[in-house]
Amino acid sequence: MDADLSHWIPGLFNYWVAVTLFVLGLVIVIDSHNMIKKLIGLNLFQSAVFLLFITMGKVSGGHPPILDPSIEIYSNPLPHVLILTAIVVGVATTALGLALVVRIRRVYGTVDENKIQHNPDVEPEIIP
Amino acid sequence: MSLVTASHLPVLQVIVPMLLAPLCIVIGNRTVARGFMLTAAIAMFGISAALMAGVLDGRIYIYELGGWAAPWGIEYLVDPVTAFVLLTINLVHLLAAVFCLSGNHGAPDETARPSFFAAWLLCISGLNGMVVTNDAFNLFVFLEISSLATYVLISCGRDHRALLAAYRYLVMGAVGATFVLLSVGLLYMQTGTLNISDLANRIAEKGADRTIIMALSFFVIGIGIKCALFPLHDWLPNAYNYAPDSVTVLLSGTATKVALYVLLRFLHDLFSADFSILAMPLDWILIVCGVLGMLLAPLIALRESSLKRMFAWSSVAQISYIVVGVGLGTTAGVAAALLHLFNHSIIKAMIFMAVGILIARTGTARIRHLGSVAHHHRFVCYILLFGGLSLIGLPGTTGFVSKWVLVTAVIDKGSWWLAIPVLAGSLASASYIWRIVETMWAKPAHLELAAQPSGVHFVEWFPMVILAALAVWFGLNATWLTGIADLAASSLVETGIGVAR
Amino acid sequence: MIDMINIGMDIGLLGVLLACALLILRSGSLLAIILLSAAYSLSICALFVILDAVDVAFTEAAVGAGISTVLMLAVIRRQDESLHAPRWPSAISVVTGLGLGLLLIVGTLDMSMYGNPLAPVHLHLAPRFIGQSGAETGIPNVVTSVLASYRGYDTLGEVVVIFAAGLSVLLLLPSANTETGEEHEDRQRRAWIADNPILKAALLRVIPLVLLFALYVQFHGDYGPGGGFQAGVIFGAGVITFGLLCGLGKLLAILSERWVSIGMAAGVLLYAGTGVAAMWRGGNFLDYSTLAETPTAGQHTGILLIELGVGITVAFTMISLFICFSRGRD
Q1: Taking each helix axis from N to C terminus, what angle separates B196-206 and B256-271, rounded to the nearest 10 degrees?
Q2: Are residues B72 and C129, on separate chains, in Cβ contact within 8 Å?
Q3: In angstroms, rounded to a whole number, what is the distance separating the alpha carbons of residues B349 and B253?
């Protein structure tokens, strides 16, 4: 690989945006006190990785990988398969996280992590 | 070594619990679900024992899922290291399942039971899948199966704070899993393959470029979260503390151990532990994390007010010993890591069973409420004492064996000074063990604590006693176990999976 | 020329994604954040189409923009909790984020350029999938054949993950025996849809079409984008619409919770059962070639069965999620 910046910029642009989204998602996950916003940050964070996978599967001039005698160049199907699975896994995690959030709100009356930690009134009792 | 491809054992190890979990839901009966859990546990232990026997006969099992040859399809691979870890986790799982059946330590809600057992089965299925798979993406999928099941099992704890613990673990765990996914993506991008043996060969041909190094870094962080590698251990104390007792036993005995195995496997398979080809001192990063963990975690444990959380911190410390063994990268280091992995699995499972019984009998987990408790619940307290001594690594216990091997490995590698933190860590463990011994035997009894009969159900003490017996046995006759660990370690370090094919 | 347009759209959509992410970071209203994340999902969907990943785009549309948004809205429906005034990111997140981001940027420098057909990723496994999957499985959609056959075991894992999520939500949000005041209030609040006769009649007539479309997506997945997962989500959405229009009570009267959970399990059992059947007939787990006289016919049968399993589990899980999240007691 030649270390020429002008060569890198168009060629790696997608990856760099994916990295930026990755960082933004991580910042949202770390900084949000609201548990729902945190889960949305997590989605954002995961989708950045999805973007990276799908970008690597693209072939210039390629077509979607559905076989057709009139087409010669196809994009790589394997990243699509992997990301299909990963998206499903992601939504499963989100659903479980939201169910936890609903339960937490029932018990503590809030979904704000800071309020739960700092307000002694919402400290629950041990259920025997 | 002969390759065996015709045996269905590797896949049965994973799909038996995976099939029984939905059946639990379809039948929807608690007793049947319990029966399924026990059946699965016995079957899985049997399968892992059979695999171990085969491996000791010099066989290596390869299983092509869907009949597609790797690297196009997904393949399962069982070699000595895999068999060792499979046997460990399925042994502990069998005993944890029996312990769970006692009813005092399982799901809190009567109606929720079949789904609780289904989640349990999925968890152990996912963990087994992570161990046997030889495919990087498949690893991610099974990591997620076990993780999702783990989150919900933790949230079943009696205390409402279990929900918070589960949520925090979910967020951290999902970040970790995404790191693993990213790392698999980067590796795939540079090599075009997902099969771990194939990856190893291609990286060996091409050398590691910057993308591969970054992939490795993200993998270590991601799996580091799952195995509670020292600065990434944040989720563990609360998760262990608030989870139902049987789940704590399961997690401490299997989940973190599987993550450690994956870390070990990946580093050695992909890079033959030749960290020098990397542009970063990964071995030293691991060793420093391990040393910090083994020194700091016991100090935090010393200040904990809850018995269960104190032992959770002790888990962080003990995991650090294994990480140091992995970081050494030598055959002796890996053997020490594997030995300690086994020992800590059985010891910590035993301790958490004892803690669970003690909490169920006394109704408290606060250490300061446990004064003189040993006079009412003598049996359980002696088990705890024995476990504690083993954590310290007193001669005659299993803990001594693995720490001895670790110290030898450290000195062999020429880093004799590393033995100092290992020994200091043991002393630090002694301090918190002494604290509970002093409380339970010498401190005055807590007033609110009613003296209850110390009867313990058969299903509660039976698995605990088996674990204790194993710990005693392997403490006194370590040759057999160290022999297997050495065999496994040398097969991993010296031959490597790429060469074995 | 087409490539230039594609690259232009690619850059534009990436810009939209970045803008959405920044707005989510700074926004103080949960409702706004959820809608922004739906917009983000739709944009990334369009981007996936440009990058030739039509199946992925379909899934992302159904899941990211669809199900995730609905679930989030269901959770916040009673209170749009406004968050604290947006601040600057904390030091720890900046250090972690920038550190990992820089590591990744360094990692990208050895990567192959966008669209390079000679990148290692296209040279090893992909040629066989593209060149021979048609003959080996008899299915033109390569994504479907890789997903269902070559890597069918991953897909089984994916179905198990969905099942685990459905199971977990059932375990966390078990049924309440009595209707609480808030459930009543909820019904009242929803009444504007149910009581608007035109809207209700129109939507009720759309439901059969939605279900029909789901079946089309299910069985056409071999030839075009689609398959069990997308079909399951669409089918689930049809049933959910019915639940929204006629109330949870009516939905549960037709489809009791017990049957929904059996449905979730049945799909997994069908999938894994197909794999076991292959073992029974002398092949490896999930080796569909043994299921019929010729390997190709066997592959076809196997893929049909397991896609059906995926569809069933996903549809029932979606319905179960809807039921659990909408019978709130909070």
Answers
A1: 40
A2: yes
A3: 5
- Residue B11 to residue C272, Cβ atoms within 8 A: no
For residue A124, give the amino acid letter.
P
How far is the alpha carbon of B148 from chain C, nearest alpha carbon, in Å? 7
Q: How far apart are CA C252 and CA C92, in angstroms?
A: 47
Kindly list the strands in the beta sheet with B2-4, ordered across the sheet, starting from the edge strand earlier in the chain: B2-4, B59-64, B75-78
Query: pLDDT by residue for chain C (330 residues), tens digit each?
Result: 566 777 788 888 888 889 998 898 888 788 889 999 999 999 999 999 988 899 999 999 988 888 888 888 888 865 556 666 556 778 888 888 899 999 888 888 888 888 788 888 888 888 888 888 888 888 888 888 899 899 999 999 999 999 999 999 988 887 765 444 455 555 555 555 556 778 788 888 888 999 999 988 888 877 878 888 999 999 998 998 888 888 788 888 888 888 999 999 999 999 999 999 999 988 889 999 888 888 888 998 899 999 999 999 999 999 999 888 887 544
Tell whether B366 is within 8 A of chain A (Cβ).
no
Residue C82, beta-bridge partner list: C29
- Cβ–Cβ under 8 Å, residues B27 and B114: yes
According to DSSP, residue A63 is labeled B
| pTM across the whole model | 0.93
Is A93 part of the contact surface with chain B (CB cutoff 8 Å)? Answer: yes
How many Å apart are CA C302 and CA C3, to the nearest integer? 38
Classify residue B3 by its DSSP letter: E
| C275 touches B: beta carbon within 8 Å | yes
Determine the Cα–Cα distance for residues B130 and B262; give it in Å rounded to an integer.
7
Asked if C284's CB is within 8 angstroms of B63's CB, the reply is yes
- Which positions in chain C touch A17 (Cβ < 8 Å)? 14, 17-18
Q: Which amino acid is at C44?
A: I
CA atoms within 13 A on the CB side of B287: 21
Please state, in angstroms and rounded to a whole number, the distance separating the CA atoms of residues A90 and B222.
16
Q: Which member of C72, C96, C126 has the closest CB to residue A77?
A: C126
* Sequence letter at residue B440: M
DSSP assignment of C249-271? HHHHHHS-HHHHHHHHHHHHHHH
Structure tokens at B228: 């509670």
Q: Which residue in C has a C-alpha nearest to residue B64's C-alpha?
A: C284
Judge contact between B252 and B237, C-beta under 8 A.
no
- The residue length of chain A stands at 128
Is residue B500 a contact partner of residue B376, using CB atoms and an 8 Å limit? no
Burial class (CB in 10 A: 0-12, 13-18, 19+), A118: exposed
Distance from CA of C73 to the nearest CA of A (A): 10
How far B139 CA sits from the closest chain A CA (Å)? 12
Q: How many other C-beta atoms are found inside a 10 Å radius of the C-beta of residue B276?
A: 9
Which of residues 46 through 75 in chain C touch A, CB cutoff 8 A?
Answer: 47-48, 51-56, 59-60, 63-64, 67-68, 71-72, 75
3-state class of C156 per DSSP?
helix
**A5-31 helix and C91-108 helix, angle to the nearest 10 degrees:** 150
Residues from chain C that touch A52, judged by Cβ atoms under 8 A, are none
Interatomic CA distance for residues B87 and B9, integer angstroms:
13
Q: Does A9 touch chain C (CB under 8 A)?
A: no
Q: Cβ–Cβ of C285/B142 closer than 8 Å?
A: no
Phi, psi dihedral angles at B61 (to 5 degrees): -95, 130
Across the interface, of C63, C93, C161, the residue whose CB is closest to A31 is C93
Q: Locate C153 and state its tokens.
A: 């075991």
ipTM over 0.90: yes
